[in-house]
Specification:
Helix content is about 25%, strand content about 20%. It is built from 16 helices and 31 strands. Strands 1, 4, 5, 6, 7, 8, 9 and 10 form an eight-stranded mixed beta sheet that branches. Strand 9 (about 200) and strand 10 form a beta hairpin. Helix 2 runs antiparallel to helix 5 (about 140-150). It is globular.
């Protein structure tokens, strides 16, 4: 398809404006075809940017090594450029939108010289779904195009739905490295220096401008940028929810089905839970989505969710046949690997893959690497945030409904994170507002998915949306409370808080996790049905000591610790929330949440 064939006059005008500004060598429209995908892959392999993987071990697979400065989201270079600073709120980086656009136009001027400008029309969600939204990304990166072809629905059917005057989100991206006449990247990952990277969102005008990074979350603009930061604003305005949540389907031995959404910070086990293989006999878990849920209320009053993505952009290290067999099977072909180590026979390897490294590897910094188990300080062969991009349709556990344009009805919502102490294995909110309160106080250990934060420390990450909410988070809390007021308790999902990551003081895991988490999901299933064994506690509704089928190796003492209400630990949580967390939101903090904090403190104090 050629530029002049576009039916949408507004889209064509925008592309023309970007061409004049960025000065590319040529323009290509992504049609979503396998032919075009294969051609782009071949170009990147021939240029030395991509490595073709072993056709027997990873057919259709390619690997990339990024620049060491471009390996993760850069939160301190990510901006919500709303009309006012208050609209962005205390948890976002704000720059005046007029000022930011002037700065970025200066960077964009001539930034695509010597490169191809690609136009990517894409649908977040099944094409034509009433929950889906359309975006158009302009980029100068073939890496971005191929990843977007896996992660979203790209091509001509999207343009058909868009028609001559349909709405779309403008997404402009450049790696920020123009080429002089005759110059090439010489096989090196193109990007700009860190202080020239910008990942900018303009909520009122529904625009995303990204410059200087080629890494996934900064460059695949359908992902966190559109699906969460801009979509959260659209969802607030239109009365729905755009959330950092997996969606799974669980089926009991009797054939009864429930759908669960779950919000965990990045690298806290979302993908593992979404693709979980149950250890409980005759229970079945299937995957709808592993990262993002868009949820709207249907005509029957229930909350329905779609996975707006079409692929998985998963963290590779730690993914193995033991931890997540369905992910391993999903990425065995037609997948893209970024910053994983590459073996001599052109396969990929990473720490935690489940077997020792072959004799010699090329590590993610493109150096020769040999495993030395005696050296605890040895730098890893794969970057801790190394990624795989795999088509969701290849996942063995994918549910038949995963592309249903109407979505699936959500019965339960889980919140959680990595907490070695205090937070029990599972507890349930007493009602919707209590569930919003639990979501608002989520805390988790920081992971390698955020480049500019210290791994291992705890930060509050409300709803697992701290880096992804596109507006004032106090207003975001209020939006959730308003949803409850508008829709009736009977139609709303039940809300739970889970923590698979409890440890003893000596560092031993109290709960085995992975497939054994199906035992907690079973209790959640029963709680939704009103058949679970429960007890009321100062922090909410909890399982009785015998309510959860116990896995092998979890002792009576372990289970008691997992389901204990640590009064001192929770009072410390209350103090931290009251002193350091809730004050950030000032007058925007809903009174309902402040009241919930008082209630929990009173409940805990009365049990001392």
């Amino acid at each position: 398809m050629k530029l002049e064939d576009l039916k949408h006059a507004g889209l064509k005008q925008w592309i023309d404006e970007v061409v004049v500004l960025t000065k590319p060598e040529n323009v290509v429209i992504a049609d979503g075809s396998k032919t075009q995908y294969d051609s782009l892959v071949r170009e990147m392999i021939d240029s030395g940017l991509a490595i073709e993987l072993n056709k027997e071990k990873k057919p259709g697979g390619i690997a990339f090594f990024s620049d060491p400065s471009d390996v993760a989201r850069v939160e301190n270079r990510t901006y919500i450029a709303s009309a006012t600073k208050e609209a962005a709120g205390p948890t976002n980086n704000w720059i005046d939108p007029t000022q930011l656009k002037e700065t970025m136009k200066g960077l964009y001027d001539g930034c695509m010289k010597g490169r191809t400008l690609y136009v990517i029309p894409f649908s977040m969600g099944p094409v034509g779904s009433n929950i889906a939204k359309i975006g158009v990304e302009i980029t100068d990166s073939a890496y971005v195009v191929t990843n977007m072809m896996i992660m979203t629905r790209v091509g001509l059917p999207v343009l058909e739905v868009l028609g001559s005057n349909g709405e779309y989100v403008q997404c402009l991206h450049s790696v920020g490295k123009p080429l002089a006449d005759g110059e090439s990247d010489e096989g090196k990952w193109p990007c700009a220096p860190l202080d020239k990277k910008y990942i900018s969102h303009f909520p009122e005008t529904r625009q995303i401008w990204s410059y200087g990074s080629g890494y996934g979350g900064n460059a695949l603009l359908g992902k966190k940028c559109l699906a969460l930061r801009i979509a959260s604003v659209i969802a607030r305005d239109e009365g729905w929810l755009a959330e950092h949540m997996l969606i799974l389907k669980i089926t009991s031995p009797e054939g009864k089905k429930k759908y669960i959404a779950a919000a965990f910070p990045s690298a806290c086990g979302k993908t593992n839970l979404a693709m979980l293989v149950p250890t409980i006999k005759d229970w079945k878990v299937e995957t709808i989505g592993d990262d993002i849920a868009w949820m709207k209320f249907g005509a029957d009053g229930k909350l329905y969710a779609i996975n707006p993505e079409a692929g998985f952009f998963g963290v590779a290290p730690g993914t193995s046949l033991d931890s997540n067999p369905n992910a391993i099977h999903s990425l065995r072909e037609n997948s893209i690997f970024t910053n994983c180590a590459v073996t001599e026979d052109n396969d990929v390897w990473w720490e935690g893959i489940g077997y020792d490294a072959p004799s010699e590897l090329i590590d993610w910094k493109m150096n020769k690497w040999t495993q030395d188990k005696k050296n605890k300080e040895q730098a890893p062969a794969s970057h801790p945030n190394a990624r795989f991009t795999a088509p969701a349709g290849q996942c063995p556990s994918i549910a038949s409904e995963w592309e249903d344009p109407n979505g699936v009805p959500i019965d339960a919502i889980l919140f959680g994170g990595r907490r070695p102490h205090t937070i029990p294995l599972v507890h349930q909110a007493r009602d919707w507002n209590h569930g919003v309160f639990l979501g608002s106080i989520v805390g988790s250990e920081i992971t390698a998915a955020a480049l500019d934060l210290k791994a291992g420390t705890i930060r509050r990450d409300p709803f697992a949306m701290l880096p992804f909410c596109g507006y004032n988070m106090g207003e975001y809390f209020q939006h959730w409370i308003n949803i409850g007021k508008t829709h009736g308790q009977d139609n709303l999902p039940k809300i739970f808080y889970v923590n698979w990551f409890r440890k003893t003081d000596s560092g031993k895991w109290l709960w085995p996790g992975f497939g054994e988490n199906s035992r907690v999901l079973k209790w959640v299933f029963e709680a939704c049905d009103g058949t679970a064994k429960t007890q009321d506690t100062p922090i909410g509704v909890m399982p009785t000591i015998d309510a959860i089928d116990r896995p092998e190796g979890v002792s009576d003492e372990d289970m008691a610790e997992l389901l204990k209400v640590d009064v001192k630990g929770w009072l410390d949580e209350v103090s931290d929330i009251r002193a350091n967390h809730y004050p950030k939101f000032g007058e925007k903090l809903p009174t309902e949440l402040a009241q919930m904090l008082d209630v929990m403190e009173n409940n805990l104090t009365s049990t001392k």
